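Inputs:
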Amino acid sequence: MAATTPNEDLMQVDETEKRLRGLMLATLDGDATAYRMLLTDLSRYLRPWFARRLSAAHASHAEDLVQETLLAIHTRRMTYDRTRPFTAWLHAVAHHKFVDHVRRHAIRPTVPLEDDAPVFASDDSASAADRHDVETVLKSVPERTSDLIRQTRIEGATVAEAAARHGMTETAAKVSIHRGLKTLMEKFAGGSR
Amino acid sequence: MTDDLINRLSADLAPVPKRALERRLMLALLIGFAATIVGTFLILDLMMDRPFGGADTALMFWTKFGYTLAFGLLGLAAAPVLVRPEGRSTWPLVVASLLVLLALGSGSMMWMEADWPVSMLMGQTAMVCPWLITLAGLPVLIALLAAMRSLAPRSPTLAGFAAGLIAGGFGAWAYSFYCGETGMLFMAVWYSLGIVMTAALGAVLGRILLRW
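Outputs:
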């Protein structure tokens, strides 16, 4: 399905690029299933990428930014050149949306705007499928606990930051995370060790 | 929330044909330029009584023909790149600048050899030429900016500038058919000024209109 192009060999063809570009090419041909997979996948990469760039006080903006970016991908998908790397295009869109959002809301980002860490370096779970499993597992503990675990253990926030977002003390957050992890251990790892 | 959005977007998917972006820009250019052709005829031929036919020395007619068209084509080379989020393209702008310098240089040489007559610089129409060129390019500029609004330029200002360069080039090209000036220096100064004014207008408008 991925149409071969003259400069494909020159591209930095890693697995992510290959998979996402294949989905994008199918999307441009009108394949809604591929499109849904693409957007779902991208939202998983984008969420931590934006979250890392925002301070704790603005963490709630990450979801808005994910949505703004997905919307831009949708309405401006014509600007993707089929012969060029998809990840570079996506990164440019996400970067543009981030800069625009930060300026509009007068937010001080946690990394300099010139820092062009690629979007696809930031999915810290081994793969999006793993990430999906984690989300499923996290559903078995209370929502606040699962969010604390997600923020501290997956998205790389400190306990203090995560606690502040939920308006609780650091100690309470630590206890909550500990209990949540214990529950998960019992349920999925055959009891606490 | 985001899942809802993904559902809505994937239900709304329409295929994008190959080279859709290039075709959109070309279509805008064609529409705009059609208006330019009609507009220049109405204003220059009917209202200002300047018959279609251009400069009376053939060499200068073709020089203006090529000089103006070159800017339009250079803009056309830059625009499809600059309207993309990761698009960078500088060589057309560099070549365009060199072209202006080349024209100014050879125009000055001729002026020097003719012992600096003011008439050679000002011709008959120096005060209206740049304005009329910008006016002639305006329909193309409007059509291109309208087409670019749904695109995603990395720099809205630069994309607007490229639109202005196309508009200025093609506007000046259309204008040259009604222009009787035969001086090289005249073209180098006043035509270039008209094209630069159109490009600058495009940059200013692009900065505002092409944000996304």
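Remarks. Chain B has one domain: 19-209. The mean pLDDT of chain B is 93.
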